[in-house]
Amino acid sequence: MSRVFIIAEAGVNHNGSIELAKKLIDKASEAGADAVKFQSFKAEKLVTKNARKAEYQEVTTGKQENQFEMIKKLELDYEKHEELINYCKHKNIMFLSSPFDLQSIDLLNRLGLEIFKIPSGEITNLPYLRKIGSLKKKVILSTGMSTLGDIEKALKILKDCGTTDITVLHCNTEYPTPMNDVNLLAMNIIKDAFKIEIGYSDHTLGIEIPIAAVALGATVIEKHFTLDKTMEGPDHRASLEPEELKKMVRCIRNIELALGDGIKKLTESEKKNINIARKSIVAGRDIKKGEVFTETNLAIKRPGDGISPMRWDEVMGKIANRDFREDELIHI
């Protein structure tokens, strides 16, 4: 299979600090991720002044402030974007960011991003989809809270605007996602329905679900990570810490190797075991020259460097052309 594209989702786990953002880039690069992704937005363009938080955000950041107040502190301006892009180049990892408004799409386009990641919340945003579709860049589309009908409509909009290189990520937007709501098999339903590349954006605790997604055929994996789960902020608790991220990447790379090409064949590593593990036709007792080979004087035992037991019927009834001692390989 082709190499899985692993996105380490920093999101807003930088807490508005360029220094923390750079540390997140460091850890994503060290873990071996292909890209580190942030979020681009202007609070005034994203939410109303009195929009309430999601339930999980109230749990992680309290109820004292509303959603606007919470995310306003997490904005990254043009200069910070540029600084982080340059830092990613220095660390040899791709910079990505999800735009959450039309102005942020323009910002990321001016900065030269070649891949646009559409977050789940924008899948029903017609002007947004048209704007990204018109850029004709590679698109990764998350589908949390969506039906197949929602996905179909979004894909049609993107394609009608000229975008053809699209990967769809199965996703659940609850933080953290309960295991019984993951519905991982839906990923391949999406693939079959739209004949499209698929992947998985994960919000479960731990690393086993994205690893399972790769085994099921995901070509892109996105996973939130943080420097410390105990930090203040909306997404830290449902994120991986650096060592967990590193382990997830390592496991995914192992799964890539283990999946192979699907052709059942003898591998180089196991060739040396054929004669040890397989069996041959041997003398079940001492046999004199001229005796007839029968089921009573022959046996099947290891090693496998003699006549294969698959030729048992061929050997039955043949005449011994010499004496054979018990356990000696039979020759005809």
TrEMBL record:
SMART domains: SAF (SM00858). The keyword Translocase does not apply. It comes from the Bacteria. It comes from Alkaliphilus flagellatus. Its EC number is 2.5.1.56. One of its GO terms (molecular function) is N-acetylneuraminate synthase activity. It is an enzyme of class 2 (transferase). This is N-acetylneuraminate synthase. Residues 280-332 form the AFP-like domain. Keywords: Transferase. The keyword Transferase applies. InterPro entries: NeuB/NeuA, PseI-like, PseI/NeuA/B-like_N, SAF, SAF_AFP_Neu5Ac, SAF_PseI/NeuA/NeuB. PROSITE patterns: AFP_LIKE. Transmembrane segments: none annotated.
